Structure formats: structure tokens, C-alpha cells
Amino acid sequence: MGNHKKYWKNEIELSSDNQMMDDIKNKEFADKLPSDLFLSDQKHLENTNTNRRDFLKYLGFSTAAATLASCEGPVNRSIPYVVQPERITPGIANYYATSIADGYDFANVLVKTREGRPIKIENNTKAEVKSSANARVQASVLSMYDSLRLKGPMHQGNEINWEELNKNIIQELESMKENNSPVALLTQTFASPSTSKIIKDFRKKYPNIKHIQYDAISESTALDAFEIAYGQRALPSYDFSYADVIVSIGADFLGDWQGGGHDLSYVKGRIPVKDKKNKAKMSKHFQLESNMSISGANADKRIMLTPTQQKIALAKIFGYISGINIGGELPEKIDLSIKKIAESLIKSGEKGIIITGIDDVDAHLLTYAINDLLGSVSYKKEELSLIRKGNDKEVLKLIKDLNNGEVKGIIMCGVNPVYTLANSDDFISGIKKANFSVCFSMKNDETAVESKWVAATPHYFESWGDNEMVSSNYSLTQPTIRPLFDTMQFQDCLLKWMGSNMNFYDFIKDNWENNILINTGWNQALHDGVFKSKEKNQIKNISYNYNVSANNLSSSKSSGLELVLYSKTGLGDGQQANNPWLQEFPDPITRVSWDNYLTVSKADAKELGLKNYNVSNGALDSNYANIKANGINLKVPVIIQPGQAKGSVGLAFGYGKTNAMKREMQVGVNAYKLYHNFNSFQNVEIEPVDDNHEFACVQLHNTLMGRGDIIKETNLEIFNTKDVEQWNSVTKVSLNHIETSVNSPDVDIWDEFDRSIGHHFNLSIDLNACTGCGACVIACHAENNVPVVGKTEVRRSRDMHWLRIDRYYSSEETFNKDNNRKDGISGLSDSLSVFGQMEEPSNNPQVVFQPVMCQHCNHAPCETVCPVAATSHGRQGQNHMAYNRCVGTRYCANNCPYKVRRFNWFLYNNNDEFDFNMNDDLGKMVLNPDVVVRSRGVMEKCSFCIQSTQAVILKAKREERTVKKGEFNDTCACSAACSTGAMKFGDINDKESQVSVLKESDRVYHLLESVGTKPNVFYHVKVRNTDET
Amino acid sequence: MASHYEAPIRKPLVTGNKSYHDVSVDISNAVEGKANKQWWIVFSISMTLFLWGVGCIIYTISTGIGVWGLNKTVGWAWDITNFVWWIGIGHAGTLISAVLLLFRQKWRFAINRSAEAMTIFSVIQAGLFPIIHMGRPWLGFYMLPIPNVYGNLWVNFNSPLLWDVFAISTYLSVSLVFWWTGLLPDFAMIRDRAVKPFQKKIYSLVSFGWSGRAKDWQRFEEVSLVLAGLATPLVLSVHTIVSFDFATSVIPGWHTTIFPPYFVAGAIFSGFAMVNTLLIVMRKVSNLENYITIQHIELMNIVIMITGSIVGTAYITELFMAWYSGVEYEQYAFLNRATGPYWWAYWSMMTCNVFSPQLMWFKKLRTSIVFSFIISIVVNIGMWFERFVIIVTSLHRDYLPSSWTMFTPTFVDIGIFLGTIGFFFALFLLYSRTFPVISQAEVKTILKTSGDNYKKLRDKNG
User: Fold this and answer.
1) Which residues, 6 or more positions from A860, have their beta carbon under 8 angstroms from its beta carbon?
2) How far apart (Å, rounded) are the C-alpha atoms in residues A454 and A169?
3) Chain A environment of B167 (Cβ under 8 Å)
4) Alpha carbon distances (Å) from A225 to A262, A319, A345, A615, B299
5) What digits encode the pLDDT tens for the residues A692-712?
6) Integer Cα distance of A928 and A941 in angstroms
7) Shortest Cα distance, chain A CAs vs residue B124, angstroms
8) Chain B neighbours among A 748-807 (CB < 8 Å)?
9) Closest residue by Cα to residue A123 from A773, A785, A572
């Protein structure tokens, strides 16, 4: 811009030839300093001496200077970009499409990076399959910043460099090849076409190598069964959105069954939307299981069966459907229910689906057969799921071979058999006998410690890779940060070892361009992260006598207690056990964090003498159970689990790790020790141990106490036939003796603000769509720098989660009966006994999940009571929290009816007492720079991710436009993470936004409406497809 | 108060044939004499407790509120319980000195000085808690409406917690002025009797140059009356405002319109009990039985009995309203109070506050020193439990059962409470050695009407 204005200080300045002005402009000192004169007078200099006053002056000055110098604040070194990298603008996030494939979790995700640091994971909505990041995937960003990762390759515990490692391994491999001694390549399941190709090439170079895939939690039986039935070793896909009847026998398909990710299609069939005839449809879900799983919690009808009964039940269902008579003993009542289930399956025909989680080839064969008989459209056997390939028999044989000396060398990648094998002692002695053992690992874990060579691998954020998780659905893994440590990918090493001069990136690119990509360029595929090819898989049915399988199953007998091993939402198979977010993540069902435990039914607990009890601050304690099975003793704490089938007990994998784990994170017991023959069903003996265990459980009260207005629910029939008033009524108050709804403006003592101008944010939560998976909890944790407080603090009811998912059990068989029971109370003594009984959950309760975060009340009780106005209402509906202003009286938290405010009881960052990610420099890299880290003594809570809504507004402002329609959709971390669409966030003043549409639904209600808080979060009445009217 | 006629059937308020000089000597005895061994023992115990409390406070402020037993559901427990408890105790002083002055109750002369001292000392204890219960007490000045660099950033006048700041600071300042005004003639008396120059100097300073002229006395009377008029509404307002902390909230068990009168009655109840506790000991230790007579104690017991009954009525009204309201949360809150996990606290409160004062209907019991002392302690325990019950049992199980939990105190919670008790007694013990503990100037005004020797004379001579 041209600006010719001349500024001047005085008039003389304006006259051009003024000596004085020139002097001022050009010389620092207008007159020459008389330094020469002063210094040249040698005589004078010699005569002067520093007198007392001068001395004091100098002393004073130097003391002051020294003091000031020592007062310097702490130095925080930050290095500016000397050359700003392309595409990185400080303050602006970059997103990269990538995919996780750690052998247990497979998902297509977007990675949010800030100034080159990956800080958060989001769902890649472009992907048609596996597009949802579960809680573990959400948390995997923190696993990259794990301070206990391997920093470089090692040989027998000593750090070495890669040249040394590669040189030695190549030597070893060559000599093995010469002697033709077999070498095993034991890997995780790779769903990676390029990796498969590399392994193939590698085996061409070294034919003595045998590739064995190993899943810590095995799906081998399902794979074997599929191979028998269809001739291909893979797993079928399922699309539950087509189903009218879903029968699951012991399959936690909303959890991690067969790699998870089934909740998306399931939920599509679970949201009742009324059609033109004012009728809504939803699927009916039967769950027959032993442990209370997330799937069981969401089921319309849940039947408790021991593992043996599950097998018989499955056989019987097959019998009913195929019309043959199947024996086997089941209690009469259960038999009747199973008959009904079979009938409804037959009735639903192709709209029926049955699945199982029984680790038995026969069981899987039967479900495949039933689905084929039904012609189920939900059963997608042509779309192969390729994310589980482990073969139990080969793994067991490998252990034998290692010990026999028939396998002389072993290369491992992505597996930790020393931790995950039941017979890990045999495995250890095996690899000790081997000539050489290499372990590719991110951590110096149990297996790495036992291996001669340890090759440090990068996190998937630092790696290249590709995946075919479901046949024809390809995806890419791309690095989002330069490797933090001196690591090398497994595939790069293999390429190097076989003498290729290609790196893995070139290899993938080559492979994709030549074999995979059609009509799409590499750059586009990399940008999208996914690519779908049109190839169709053909599957042939192989004839098989399923009646034999049914008879095998129905003749199962049990003796004593049966243990069902399962995986928890938090830790899964235990790979990320050193991740504090996941440790602090409360289990969706038990809501216990920082532990695994034996789940026992109330009846069994009583018989066995196992106890749960609360101590004076409410915290949960138990005694221990000693589990005996196959010569192994395990001392495990106990949780009495409502809905646990009598005669069965449950125990989760993933805990009890000790290597490369921070002390705080070494919790729980290793359930893999009981995973004999890769069977999740085990016969066990249990005796009580008189010892006290302390749990960290975030929810200490399990029932809803008949408070039907907290979770409103109804069933499909009432929903379809009755008036809204009957199933979603608003509390009434008397206004001049006229019954008036509490949400009517007439009963409001305040004049309402005009909220129709500008943006007004609302969050919709559909209780029908929420499965309780908890991805939102971790997403919120990551987005908002929520501190981890550790087991002892959680135990003191001081968890910091901004978003929690409350789980309630019914005390009667159903919540409806709870409500009726409470309403039927008459008299004081009745209320005393009934409320007492309502604290106890039923033996097989209904379960409901309710995500609760700050409700952002328009009439917020917290705002009026804060003496310093630290919490006040925003123009866009948010309830703000000014941390700097907060003095920490906690009055707001007390006055919050939802109890969503969280107080910083201690300093949670840079504090050795809380040695989690915010206490080390590496872990702090995950912090979101847009959200302040709170200091101790202040209150914090959900902000509706104001940093994100504000970013949208600022972007629009910078681009000189109004905010686009729907631009606010899912700006909240929780709603963005919610793949089932249970949470929807947006601007209700944008009448076309998803949240505005949802707000018009007749299922909408506000939590505790009668308190008059007018929340900006609203819920949808839960509709169950139950028979009860 | 000039010497009015007093009916002969009234019991003498000063016994032991006291002359004016006797009164001066008896009351300055404690100030002029040396402390005995018991005093030193009690004082050392109090100081130990106080120092322990200081340690706990320092630990809290340097580490975080997490060292207390609070949690996400129960955000206040012992801190605010102690605060309300001490504030409540502080109520008796003003009531005795101001309200009873306005009602011309002469029996107050023997007890008002110590009652006011107790008020000030307990308000100091109470004032500690709102400060230390903050997460960031060093920013406590945010609570004051002072100009700041943030422009129009102001305190939230909607918040009852802010009203507390004003109510308590007003109460403390008015009480202090009132107390000191009453002290002036008595300090002057001690000054005039003092022989050591240092003592004389100090007491001259604190007596503000009292000369005993008629004008002094006239002004003294006027100021007392005005201050009494000012202080009387405070008796009602302070605890009313404290009760607003709870009454204006939305938590079942807190949101109750009965709270203001209920809290004021409870405050007077606990205050009188604490006065009884202190005076029963002091009259014995400082040989003041002739001034603080059984009659005084009996009168205070009657006040305790009446306010105890009011409090009891309030408890029952709360239960009735919970039932009558038909609000399920309210009903459950009260059911849970009486029969939930904290039933023992509720029934301790009921026993101590409602049942035990009813024994005062028996004259034999209310004139028994030992019994009065025991009941006074019991009442204070009960009133502590009342606040604990209101705060903790309402919070620990409110609306959403998912958040329900329990509270248990840590050693720091207990330490700070004991510390304030130690601090309170240390202050009171120091006071009893340096201040005229009975308002001797005022006692002298009733000596001729209510002194037993004069009464006897009147009886004899008509």
C-alpha cells in the first residue's frame, strides 16, 4: 500500500538542511564524547581512587544486578522454524488419512496433526468399511508418545545400530538357508497385500522360512469352520442393518468379536424412525451369553447361559430350523425361549441372522449353515473379513518344533507370545534353544526380552503400509510424523534382508499402481486413505454334514464352573496396556478402571464366599478368588456381575503386563495364562482367598432407583401405537391450579433471552444408537487435555472425565417394572424396604447407557452461584468456564444436578505424584495446543469443544463469509468420534442442520427437565423391541 | 442502666455480699494475678492443636484440596460444616449483648462480655474456612468487588457466597466495635488499678482515654444502644445469608425455604450451648460463681431448650414438606438422610439437638451444673452433625444415581477442625487472662437492685 504521509516531531525536522537534525539522525551522540581527554590524562587517572561512596555504589549496583540476574524465570526452549515446512501453518491443523492395523485393531482413520505432531484420531468417513475408531484406536495416538518405547535396535539387551543388526541377521539367514534348517516367521495378522507380497518374495529367497500368523485372541475356529464350509480361510462380513432378528450366542459383536466394527450396521437397524404410516421398525436382538457384554447390554432379550448351555442352545436352534431333532439337556424355561427364538428366526427368513462367539469349529459351522438356510441377507460371506488369520494349530506346532529343535530360528513381528501364550514357558524354552531369534517390537516387552535380536519398530503414525481389511476394500497407512526414534519397519527390514534396494514405500506404491488401483491415481488414493475395487469375490458352498456338528455340540457336558475369557473395551488384547488413557477408561459394563477381575454371578459368589463391599468413602473392595485350571493358579479380585450366568465366571485379557510398563500401569492379572488351547471357555475351580483388593470404580451405585425421568424408555409397540404423552410425558407443575408442563414459559420466573440470533449449539444424544462403546470418552480426553489421575484418585471418586457414560441396571427385570414399583410405594415402611431393595440390581437386568457431559443449561445452576463469575453463559448457548478467574470454591459442582464438573484436586501436570503422560516431555506432545492445561484448584468441564466451534467461526470470518450450513456439524470431539451417530452436534439456529431436525423428533427429552435448567443437550427416549407392554 | 426497682421475688443476680470494690477486685483478679498450672496445661494443649491445624492448612495450600476427603460428588464437607458451625456459635454473643440489651434483660451483664468474645473468636475460625476451602486461596481477593485492570470484570452479585463475604465481614466488624465499646470503662478500671508502668501504658491505650466523666457515660450508653440496634438485624441476617448458600441451590435437601429461620434458631441454640460450656468452666476457674450464678445458667438452659424445640420443629417440617411436596428427589433425599448410609449422623443430630434439650423441662436438671455442662457439649456435637447432615447427605446422593458416592474425612480434614478448636480456645484463654471477663461497670449498675446483700437489706428494712 502506498502511504506518503510524513510524520514529524517538530518543525525543524521539516527544513531539509539543518545540521542539528542531521546529527540527531546520524549520530548516536550529537557531541563527541570526551573519552580521549579523560583517558589520556594519565596523571589524573592515577590520582583518582575509588572512594567509599563509589564503592557502595558499585556494590549496590552489582548486588542488584546479580539478584536480578538470578531471578530469571524458567527457560522454555522453543525452536522456531528456520525454514517453514510446506503445508504447515502454525495454528492450523493438518489431517492425514491413514489406517491402523496392529493385529488386533483395524480401522481407517484420519490423523489430526498440529505443527507436525499427531494429536488426535478421527473417523475416516470416506471408508466404507472399518471407518470407526474405537476407544483403543482413539487412544493409540498416546501410545506413540510412550516414553518406554524402544529407542533403537538391541542385541541381548545392548543397544546396537541397524547395520550391525541387518548384517548379522542376513548372515544368520544365509547360514540357515545353507543348512536348510527351518526358520519360523511368526507374525500378527497382516491384512496387507504388499506385506503378503514381500513375505512371499522373502520366502522365495529363503525357502526354509515358514510363515505363521498368530492372533493373541484367536478366531481360529471361525476361520477353520469357514474353510470347511466355503473352502477359504477367512471370516464373513455381516451387515446387521438388514436384519429383523439378530441372534447372538456368546458373540460380543458390539465389542471386539471378530475384530469389531459391527456396531455401525447394527445401530442402523435400531433407530426407530416413523414412516408415513406412523410406524417405526427396528430389529429385535436376542443375546444368549454367559458374561454381561456390551452386546448383551444392548439386547432386547438377554438369556443367561453357561458356555455348555450356549453350545446346546445353538445346536437346538439349528435343529428347530433344519427340522431335525437334537438332544441335549437345557432347563425347560430356557428351552422354551430358544424354541421361540428359532421360530422368530424362521419367521424372519432372510431378515434373520445368527452369530456365535463359541470357540468351536462345530458352532461356527452351524451358524454358517443356519444363515445359509435362512438365506440371510445380513450374512455377507462374499465380503471376506481379512483381519483375523491366526492359526492355532500352527502356533502350537511351532512351540513343539522349537523345543524339538525342528525350527532353528524365529522372526517375530507384532506379536508378544511370551505374554499372550498360555504355555509361554514352553515358548521361552523354545526360543532359547533356537540359533537365532529376532523380535520386531515397539517395546522391550516380554518377548523382546527373551529374544536375541530386538528390532525397534515405529508406531503406525511413523509407518507406511496398506490394508485390505475386507476383501476389495483397500486402505493405506502413511506416516504423519518423522520417526521419533531409530526405528525400522518390519517390511523394510525384510526387503533389506532379501537384498532388495527398494524401500517399503516404493514397494507399496509399485504394488498399488500395478495391481490395485484402477482409474484412480496414487496421490488420490493416499489422500483418501481408502480405495474400493470392484472385484467381486465368489464363494462356493462345500457340502458338509452339519447334523454331526449339531450332535457334537448338543452332547457337550460341563463339570463345575466354566470360565469365559473375554476382551475389555479398554485394553483389548493388551498391546496398549501402558496407555494411561485406556487404563483410566472405565469399563462400559462394570465401570471399573485400572483392573481386570473375575465376574461372578451373585448366586455363585454367595456359594463360593466371594464378596464385594464398599469402604467408608464409598470405594469398592473385594476379596480374591483363586482360579485353578490346568495346573495354573491365579489370584484374581472379584466383581459380582449382574447378568452373569450362574455356573459361569468371566475374566478379561490384556492385563497383568509387567515389561516396559510404568509402575502405575502394572495392574490386573494375566488371563492368557488360562487361555489353554486358545479356547475362551475353560473349566475352572474357584476358592476364595481372604485378602482385600481395592478397585477404582467410577460408578458406585448401579441401579436407576426407579427414576424414570432420567432415562425415559418405552417399547416399540407403545411407541408405534400410543400418544407421545404416554411414553414421553413432561413433568407437570401446578400454575394457579392448572397443570402446566415444566418446560412451559409460563412457569419460568425469568424472561427468556432471544436465542434465535447468531449460533446456538445443541447436542443430541440418541439412547437407541448409543452402544456404550466409549470412543467418545477417549476422544474427549484427547481433544481437551483431560488429565489422567491414576488408580488411587479414581478410587476416591475423583476421575476427571468430562464425558462419562453412565450405565444403569434395572433392579426388577425391566426398568419399566422399576418405575412401577417405585410408583406403587405406599407408606413409610414400604418406601424404606422398597428403596433398599431397589439398590440391588436384578440377576439378569436390563441395561442402559447414558452419555452425560455438561448439559450447557440455559438456566445453569452453576452460573448463579459462582461468586467470581468464573462460569457464565455464552451467547451461543455454551456454559463457559474461565479457568483464570476460577478460585475453586466448588460451589458450582455442588449445585450441578448432573454432577459433570470436575475439580483439579492436585496439580496433574509436571507432578511426579501423577506420573502419566503429562509428566514427561514425550507424553506432553499429545496435548492439544488449542486447549489450556488446567492448573490445580480450578474447576473444569465440557466446553462443547468451544475451540472447534470458534475455529469454524474464525475461518468463516477470515474468508469473509457467513458460516456454511451444517459447518458446525460434529465439531465436538465426542460427536465426531461417535460412529453410530448417537451423538449429533450442531447449530439449532441453522434450521437444516442435523441437530435441528433431530430436535423436532417426538422422542426428545431433556435430562431432569423438572429442575428447570433448560439444557442444550437433549436425549432421545430409548425404545426397546421387547414383548412386554 | 440506672438502678431500677426490682421485685423482691426475683432472685439476686449477684451473690456473695459484694460491694463495688469487691466487684472490681474479683474481676481484675484474673488480669492482675498469675496464671495457674491448669491454665498453662489447657493453653499448651490448645496451642498444640492450633499449630497442628496450621500445619494441616499449610499442607493443604501447598499441595491441593485433594488432601481432604472430598470428591467429584461431595464438593463440600467438613470445610463448610465447620464454617457454618463456627458462625452459628458466634450468634449467641450478639444476641446476648444486643437483643437482650434492647429487651433490658439484666442477667446478660454477667455473660455478655465473654459471649461477645466468643462470637469474635468463633467468627475468626469461621472466616478461615471460606478462604482455605478455595482451590486457589491466593486469589481470594477475586471475591471482593475491587477495581481491576480487566475493565468491567466484577464479582457475581447473584452468588450467595458473595453475600456471605459481606455478611460475615459486616458481622465481624460490628461485633468487634460493640465489644470494644463495652470494654472501655472496664479497661479503664484495670488501667486505674495497674501498678506496673507497662500494663498501665497498654490499658491506657486500649481504653481510648476513658475518663469516667458523665459525658463519657452518656455517650457510652448512646453508642451501646445504637450499636445494639445495628447488631440486632445482623443476628438474623448473617445466618439467614449463610443458609442461602444452601436454600438458593437446586439440590434436594438444600433447596428449602425454611432454612433462614431454621438456621437462625440453630445458631442461637449452638451459641448458647457454647456460652454455657465456656462460662461453666470459667466461673469455676476464675472464681466468678457469685456473678455467673445458677440462675444465669438456668436462663441460658431455657433458651437452649426453646431454640432446640424450634430446631426440632424445623427438622420435622422438612420431613413433612418432603412428603407433602410429592417431589420424588426431595422425598428420597430425606429418606436417605434418616435411613441411608449416613443414618448415624442424622440420628446423632436428632438425639443431640431435639431429644436431649427436652430434659431441660426438669428444673432439677437445668439447675445442675454438671448436667448443663454435658448438655452444652452434646448440643454442640449435635449442631456440628446438623451441618454435616445437611451438606454431605444431600450431596452424596442427589439426582443421578451414577454419581452417588460417599465421603470420608482424611487426617487433614480432622486436623484443620481440631486446629480451629485449638485456636479458639487459645484465644479465649488469652482473653480470660488479659480482659475483664465480666462487664463490671454494668454489673455495678445492678448491684444495688439485684445484689443479694442489698436485697437482704431491703427485705429487712422494707
Assistant:
1) A871, A873, A879, A1013
2) 11
3) none
4) 20, 19, 22, 49, 92
5) 999 999 999 999 999 989 999
6) 16
7) 19
8) 793, 796-799, 804, 806-807
9) A773
Name residues whose C-beta falls within 8 Å of residue B92's C-beta, 6 or more positions apart in sequence. Answer: B115, B118, B119, B267, B268, B270, B271, B272, B274, B275
Does residue A902 sit in helix, strand or coil?
Answer: strand
Q: CA A571 to CA A653: how far, in whole Å?
A: 8
How many Å apart are CA A778 and CA A868, to the nearest integer? 31
Q: Give DSSP secondary structure letters for A177-230.
A: HHHT--EEEEEPPP--HHHHHHHHHHHHH-TTEEEEE--SS--HHHHHHHHHHH
C-alpha A402/C-alpha A412 separation (Å) is 13
| Cα–Cα nearest to B248, from A859, A897, A864, A1007 | A864
ipTM surpasses cut 0.90:
yes
Looking at CA atoms only, how far is residue A572 from chain B in angstroms? 25
Domains of chain A: residue spans and CATH: 154-218+390-465+476-531 (3.40.50.740), 232-385 (3.40.228.10), 558-697 (2.40.40.20), 713-855+946-1024 (3.30.70.20)
Pairing mode, if any, of strands A183-187 and A158-159?
A: unpaired
User: Which residues in chain A are closer than 8 Å to B63, comparing Cβ atoms?
Assistant: 906
Q: Say yes or no for a CB contact (<8 Å) between B402 and A699.
A: yes
Contact A713, A988 (CB under 8 A): no
How far off is chain B from A734, nearest CA to CA, in Å?
Answer: 11
- Find the closest chain B residue to A835 by CA distance: B332
Cβ atoms within 10 A of the Cβ of A641, count?
24
| Residue extents of the structural domains in chain B | 20-144+154-446
Separation CA A213–CA A511 (nearest Å): 22
Amino acid residing at B134:
M
Question: In chain A, which residues have their Cβ closer than 8 Å to the Cβ of B153?
Answer: 869, 885
Instruction: Give the span between the Cα atoms of A106 and A195, in whole angstroms.
Output: 15
Contacts 24+ apart (CB under 8 A), A719-725: A719/A272, A719/A280, A719/A1021, A719/A1023, A720/A274, A720/A278, A720/A279, A720/A280, A724/A1002
Of B248, B335, B405, the CB nearest to A700: B405
H or E segment to which residue A452 belongs: none
User: What pLDDT sits at residue B2?
Assistant: 43
d(CA A747, CA A323): 63
Please answer yes or no on whether B135 and A903 come within 8 Å at the CB atom. Answer: yes
A624 near A636, Cβ under 8 Å? yes
| Helix extents (H) in B207-258 | 214-247
What order do you get walking across the sheet with A1017-1020 strand by strand? A983-987, A761-766, A1017-1020, A1004-1005
Could you say which of A835, A868, A938 has the minimum Cβ distance to residue B155?
Answer: A868
The C-alpha atoms of residue B224 and residue B183 are separated, in whole angstroms, by 11
Level-2 CATH architecture, domain B20-144+154-446: Up-down Bundle (1.20)
A866 with B156: Cβ contact below 8 A: yes
Name the pTM for this structure: 0.90
Q: A850: which chain B residues are within 8 Å (Cβ-Cβ)?
A: 402
CA angle B193, B194, B198 (to 5 degrees): 160
Q: How many helices (H) and strands (E) does chain A have?
A: 35, 40
Nearest to B406 among A618, A804, A890 (CB): A618
Q: Who wins on pLDDT, A754 or B46? A: B46
- The predicted-structure confidence for A101-129, as pLDDT tens digits, reads as follows 999 999 999 999 998 899 999 999 888 88
Cβ-based contacts of A852 with chain B (< 8 Å): 400, 402
The answer on pLDDT for A74 being more than 70 is no
Cβ distance of A887 and B134 shorter than 8 Å? yes
Residues A617-665 have pLDDT tens digits of 999 999 999 999 988 999 999 999 999 999 999 999 999 999 999 998 9
